[in-house]
Every structure is written in C-alpha cells, then in structure tokens.
Specification:
alpha+beta, OB fold (Dihydrolipoamide Acetyltransferase, E2P), 5-stranded mixed barrel, about 25% strand
Amino acid sequence: MQFLDIFLIATLVLAAVAVGLFFLNRWSSTKMVEQDRMIEQTKQTISIFTIDKKKCRPSEAGLPKAIIDSMPARAKIMKAPFVKAKMGSQITTFMCDPRIYNAIPLQKQIRVDVAGIYIVDFKGRMSEEEMKAQGRGKKSSFLSKLNPFS
C-alpha cells in the first residue's frame, strides 16, 4: 500500500465519523427540545424550605426505590445535584438543574418551579444589575475602598 491509499482510507473514516456525529447531534437536540417542552407544560410553582443540597448518586440521595428503578442505567451511575427540602409538612428530595444548583440558598424559604421531582428554576434571585445596585457585585468591598475611581 502506498501513502496515498492510506491517506484516502483515513479521510473516508474521518468523514464517516463526522457524518455520524452530525446525525447523532441532530437526534439528541430534537430529543432535548421535546423534553424541555414537556417540562414547560408540567412545571408548577411551589414554596419550599431548603434543608440540604449535595451532589451524589441517586441511590445515595434517598430517592424512593420506584424512581431509582425507572431511571436509565447511565443516570443511576452519574452524580447529580440533589436538594432536600421541606414542602408543606413532608421532607422531599428533589433533583436540581445543574445551572441553578449553586444559586439555591440553604436554610431559606424559596419559591421554585418544579416538574415532578425536578427543580427547573427558582424565583427571587437577584440579577447581576440588582446585585451591583445594592453593592453586592463581583467586586469585593475591600477592593472598592482601595480604588477611589470606581
């Protein structure tokens, strides 16, 4: 085999992999849009008191056995963000969206959007503009005292 033959074979293999990844990405994006639409249809706003939050496997989070059995095998192995909260008179474990996990305060009463046991969003958090207006921006107070021109 010559160099040209090896180069053509490698190019064809890379092209096949690229086409496969393109179609896999298209399939997963349509599936994600469908799941987001279902979450938007079923979400409810409730008030909860957050007790604890941690990232762990679903089997360690204290979820009911029926929920763990209905999860895909890959989801059972991966660590996910969980929030333990008091909803009314019962203590419940919720799964949380990773994008808002760090923003959820502990030991506070908050209003959240919930779809089943999944926390989608929560109300009452401040935007960056509101935090800057109150002086709680990303700049620390010590640095702002040192710089008289800020």
